[in-house]
Every structure is written in structure tokens, then in C-alpha cells.
Amino acid sequence: MWLKRKFGAPQALVEQLGALESELMERIWARGETSVRDLHNEIAPRLAYTTVMTTLDRLFKKGLLDRRALGRAFYYTPTVSKRDYNQQLAQHLFGIAVEESGSKQALLSCFVDYVTDADRKLLDDLDELVKAKKRTLRLSK
């Protein structure tokens, strides 16, 4: 699942993309640049050419893709890297969790437990990030 950014607001909001939009974004990130025909050739006969074309046009209108005309075809490239998009997604979801959580302490405890279970080195990385943030805050006073 991918989220799209809503443009126009100073702090762009994100919302869920559909399954096909997410799949096509994954393929475009992997390729870097692609045409409707190239993507359709990868996933045909599962989808009609016009379905791929319409979906890419929607992603373009949502601001996730740029396009350039070459002959009679458009070539699409992502406007944001997969890494940056993942970061925006994580910030958005964590922001929702913090706002909706009845107990911020419980939320943080769950996060630390998850990080520890996923990879103990991540816990050390998290500790370093917290220390660095505290140093930055002390210096800015």
C-alpha cells in the first residue's frame, strides 16, 4: 500500500492509494522511467492498455509522476523517490498513531518493543537518534 500526497497545503497530507496505483508506482520506481506500453507489456493480459494509461494519468494528476511526450507516447518518472515516499508515509502514520493514541507512553513502548523484536541494532540506532536530538535541542536554547 502506498499513500499519495495532497498538494496545495503547506504540510502535504497523504492518503491511501489503490492496489493498482501502488503496484504501478513500485514498477516505475524499479524502472526509473517507463511508458504505458512498457508497463502494459509487463502485466498484460491481466489489465487492458487503457486501464494502465488511465491509472498513470491519475498518478500524474495526483503529483506522484512527471511525464514527457516522446512522439505519440508519454514517458513517466516518479516525482519522489521510493525512500522519500516511505519516509513521508512513516511520518504520516506515526503522526496519526500519536494523535489517536490514548497513551503516548504506551505507543512509544510498543514502538520500542517492535524495533527490538525486528532488529536489536535498530534499538541502538534509535538510542543514538534520541541522544542526537536531545543535543540539538539543548544547543538551540
Architecture overview:
This protein is of the alpha+beta class and 141 residues long. 62% of the residues lie in helices and 16% in strands. It has helices spanning 19-31, 36-43, 49-61, 82-100, 104-118, 120-139; strands at 3-6, 13-16, 34-35, 65-70, 73-78. Strand 4 and strand 5 form a beta hairpin. Helix 2 (36-43) crosses helix 3 and helix 5 (104-118) packs across helix 6 (120-139).
Structural class by helix and strand composition: alpha+beta
Shape: elongated
Largest sheet: 3 strands, antiparallel
Tally of individual domains: 2
Query: Which blocks of ≥5 consecutive residues have pLDDT under 50?
Result: 7-13
Would you list the SSEs in sequence order as H and E? EEHEHHEEHHH
**Overall pLDDT:** 84
At the fold tier of CATH, the topology name of the largest domain is Arc Repressor Mutant, subunit A
Assign the CATH architecture of the largest domain. Orthogonal Bundle
Radius of gyration of CA atoms, rounded to a whole number = 20 Å
CATH top level class name of the largest domain = Mainly Alpha
Gap between N and C termini = 40 Å
Can you list the strand order of the major beta sheet? 3-5-4
Can you identify the CATH superfamily of the largest domain?
A: Winged helix-like DNA-binding domain superfamily/Winged helix DNA-binding domain
**Number of continuous helical runs:** 6
What is the helix content? 55-70%
Strand content: 15-25%
Number of strands: 5
